[in-house]
Amino acid sequence: METLGGAEFAPDTTYLNTSTCGLLPRRTVAAVTALAEELAAGRPGGAGDFSEVTAARQSFARLAGVDEERVAVGGSVSVHVGLIAASLPTGAEVLFPEGEYASVITPFTVRADLKLRYAPLDGLADAVRPSTALVAFSSVQSADGRIADLPAVRAAAAAHGARTLVDASQSAGWLPLDAGAWDYTVTGGFKFLLCPRGASFLTVTEEAQQSLLPIHAGTFAGEELWGTTYGPVEELALSARRFDEPPAFLSYHGARQSLALLEEIGIDVVHAHNTALARRFRAGLTELGHQPVPGDSGIVAVPGLGHRVAEMARAGILVADRAGHLRVAFHLYNCSADVERVLDVLSV
């Protein structure tokens, strides 16, 4: 299999570490560089162009299958999650998978008045009960690439009246995202969405917006941008934009370009590409006597081989060590030759 994206990517290494940070397309680098040079010269319009933020919001909304009115922008997943955690009533019960990523859990743990429970990922749906207020989990686990049983969790939450929070940071960009199926989704843009770090997205259903408090509302959260510069904002945005953080313009000038590239290629195409490479890698691992974490994820983890990351790096192959696993993440700029290079090193 050949790479996708053409001349947009030219890594110096065999880069298989997108679960940590995605490569920036050339068009994204150009957009960030252009703004940085304008800022160095004295840009008359200020720190950046809000129309670029709007374009990125619209592009993400199309990729996520929701209207742009339901998308808020920000700088990190943990801040989006913190917004949701701060809005829960005292005593609310939140259910997580065991071993969930810290940014999904910690904004809730710092509140001493919430009830927190944990269950195995494959038993998450069965662990939802009538007292559960929120189920918070990643669609794809960071440590080992396992894909959650999304339909089962959604059905269980609906049956018990619980809301849902999905972190799509390890899936958006290669696994089709139906954000409209969840009360909240949070997505860091710097992984499979190929955005500069500092661009992240929150989606909120219209119903959930009613109980979500815009605790960091500022000038950008007004219904009329720059309508209230001094004193309190008189009217907050009627859409999810009232939950916006002030945008990091360098990141969003770049994010617009990265998201546009993914739209051009198509998430379904990327999904087929990534999972085909991952299946070839799993088959090769099995032939070598290793036992990768099973599944059909574009992220492959091999238990017990995390210690070989440094050896891989010396061979020009960038992967990650997570929870003792060797974690290999395939994306659109990878090809069959990358699979063979990793297998060659592991065969020794």
Nutshell version of this structure?
The chain is α/β, with parallel strands linked by helices and 348 residues long. It has helices at 26-41, 50-64, 77-86, 102-109, 124-127, 150-160, 206-209, 249-265, 267-287, 309-314, 336-346; strands at residues 14-15, 71-74, 93-97, 115-119, 132-138, 163-167, 184-188, 200-204, 299-303, 317-318, 320-322, 325-329. A hairpin with a 2-residue loop joins strand 11 and strand 12 (325-329).
Describe what you observe in this structure.
The protein has 348 residues and is α/β, with parallel strands linked by helices. Helices cover 35% and strands 15% of the residues. It is built from 11 helices and 12 strands. The chain has helices spanning 26-41, 50-64, 77-86, 102-109, 124-127, 150-160, 206-209, 249-265, 267-287, 309-314, 336-346; strands spanning 14-15, 71-74, 93-97, 115-119, 132-138, 163-167, 184-188, 200-204, 299-303, 317-318, 320-322, 325-329. The strands form 3 sheets. It has a 7-stranded mixed beta sheet, with helices on both faces. Strands 9-12-11 form a 3-stranded antiparallel beta sheet. Strands 1-10 form a two-stranded parallel ribbon. Strand 11 (320-322) and strand 12 (325-329) form a beta hairpin. The chain is globular, with a radius of gyration of 21 Å. The two termini are 24 Å apart.
